[in-house]
């Protein structure tokens, strides 16, 4: 691996995924390196949105049937499921990740109501921690927060009482990827029910949700899935649990016979019971269109290239004395963003932004750089590090 631009150009010209960059709307001269926060729009999105408005204006309420709006939460769910190793009929799309988390967590607790300890990842994204605390208060559970490194220890200490266990698959600060299959097995051995937050994994890491035995999972639609600001989130529930799932946020779309307008809730079969009220169709169709480039490129190929881009970045920053690589180097232990520790990360991110290099920072000293192989190239990485070098000088 070399640190010349010529090497990067050669590598980029032989890259079979290079064509997919054209499927994204990114301003000329801008390096979109924060797809871990908000992925850029796919070119298919404005087309899908204008199609949706046309359907709406031409078919009015018939769009629910004639244009497939009614089935969109399950249809888009199946497509997201394929990216995360979930067989069909186990994922629905809708609501925000926060709402889906509440629903997944309460449903998990209700699967094992006699188990009164809720274990939650102390390094998780704030929303997850707030919801774990709220669900514990609501249902009178004992909340035990633990670092992911000590999760096996926490499971052992509360053996016999462990119920729902909420974890993030990828640490949103450091980019560390946890051992989803191994930890899910450990949770099961302790008698618990796993709830994985895949917000930083979906579209980035081919999590094998079915093979890993994951019980419930949620994730947001606007990071690696590029569904747009406020894109609907998704909820995964393993088929073996469907008959027993009792969601706290129920709605008529999750009813066995929604148009009977009956007085009491009878859950639909399958994952449909995870639907709530009327889904956000415009956003759902935008998210659906955004999946096209990722599906065409293939999750495994995007993951492999993204890992290599990160390796390249590690090599390029190796001689920068003030920069420490926080993300694990082992490809099995990292997600798709790279975190660097350096002084004054906020000022550095601002200087980079003025140069068209869009990254994000976690104050005071962490800089997060997302190298999504779907639309980032070797020359982009080279140029970004060149800018970083100049900014640090
Ligand atoms: C991004 C993210 C969220 C965001 O939740 P919203 O309801 O979409 O705001 C939640 N959890 C994790 C782990 C995230 O990375």
Automatic annotation (TrEMBL):
Pathway: Amino-acid degradation; L-kynurenine degradation; L-alanine and anthranilate from L-kynurenine: step 1/1; Cofactor biosynthesis; NAD(+) biosynthesis; quinolinate from L-kynurenine: step 2/3
Entry's Gene Ontology molecular function annotations: hydrolase activity, acting on acid carbon-carbon bonds, in ketonic substances; kynureninase activity; pyridoxal phosphate binding
Top EC class, one word: hydrolase
UniProt protein name: Kynureninase
Family in the record: Belongs to the kynureninase family.
Quaternary structure and partners: Homodimer.
Species per Swiss-Prot/TrEMBL record: Streptosporangium sibiricum
UniProt-listed SUPFAM superfamilies: PLP-dependent transferases
InterPro entries according to UniProt: Kynureninase, PyrdxlP-dep_Trfase, PyrdxlP-dep_Trfase_major, PyrdxlP-dep_Trfase_small
Primary gene name: sibQ
Signal peptide residues on this chain, from the entry's feature table: none
Gene Ontology biological process terms from the UniProt entry: anthranilate metabolic process; L-kynurenine catabolic process; L-tryptophan catabolic process to kynurenine; NAD+ biosynthetic process
Reactions catalysed: 3-hydroxy-L-kynurenine + H2O = 3-hydroxyanthranilate + L-alanine + H(+); L-kynurenine + H2O = anthranilate + L-alanine + H(+)
């Amino acid at each position: 691996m070399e640190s010349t631009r010529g090497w990067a150009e050669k590598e980029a010209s032989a890259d079979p995924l290079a064509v997919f960059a054209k499927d994204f709307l990114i301003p000329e001269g801008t390096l979109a390196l924060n797809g871990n926060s908000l992925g850029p729009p796919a070119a298919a999105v404005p087309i899908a949105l204008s199609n949706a408005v046309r359907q709406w204006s031409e078919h009015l309420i018939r769009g629910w049937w004639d244009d497939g709006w009614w089935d969109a939460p399950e249809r888009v769910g199946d497509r997201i499921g394929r990216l995360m190793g979930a067989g069909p009929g186990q994922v629905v799309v809708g609501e925000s990740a926060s709402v889906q988390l509440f629903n997944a967590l309460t449903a998990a607790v209700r699967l094992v109501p006699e188990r009164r300890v809720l274990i939650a990842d102390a390094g998780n994204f704030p929303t997850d921690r707030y919801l774990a605390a709220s669900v514990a208060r609501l249902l009178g559970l004992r909340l035990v927060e633990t670092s992911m490194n000590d999760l096996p220890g926490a499971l052992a200490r509360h053996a016999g009482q462990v119920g729902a266990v909420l974890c993030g698959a990828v640490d949103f600060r450091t980019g560390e990827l946890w051992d989803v299959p191994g930890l899910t097995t450990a949770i099961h051995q302790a008698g618990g029910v796993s709830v994985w937050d895949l917000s930083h994994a979906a579209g980035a890491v081919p999590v094998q949700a079915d093979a890993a035995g994951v019980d419930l999972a949620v994730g947001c639609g606007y990071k690696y899935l590029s569904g747009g600001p406020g894109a609907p989130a998704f909820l995964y529930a393993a088929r073996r649990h469907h008959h027993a799932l009792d969601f706290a946020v129920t709605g008529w779309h999750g009813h066995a016979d929604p148009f009977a307008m009956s007085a009491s809730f009878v859950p639909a079969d399958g994952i449909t019971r995870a639907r709530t009220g009327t889904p956000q169709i415009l956003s759902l169709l935008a998210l659906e269109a955004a999946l096209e480039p990722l599906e065409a490129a293939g999750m495994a190929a995007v993951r492999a290239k993204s890992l290599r881009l990160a390796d390249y970045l590690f090599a390029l920053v190796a001689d920068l004395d003030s920069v420490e690589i926080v993300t694990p180097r082992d490809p099995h232990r990292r997600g798709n963003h790279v975190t660097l520790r350096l002084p004054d990360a906020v000022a550095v991110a601002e200087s980079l932004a003025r140069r068209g290099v869009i990254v994000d920072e976690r104050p005071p000293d962490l800089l997060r750089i997302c190298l999504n192989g779907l639309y980032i190239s070797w020359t982009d990485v080279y140029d970004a590090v060149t800018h970083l070098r100049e900014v640090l000088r």
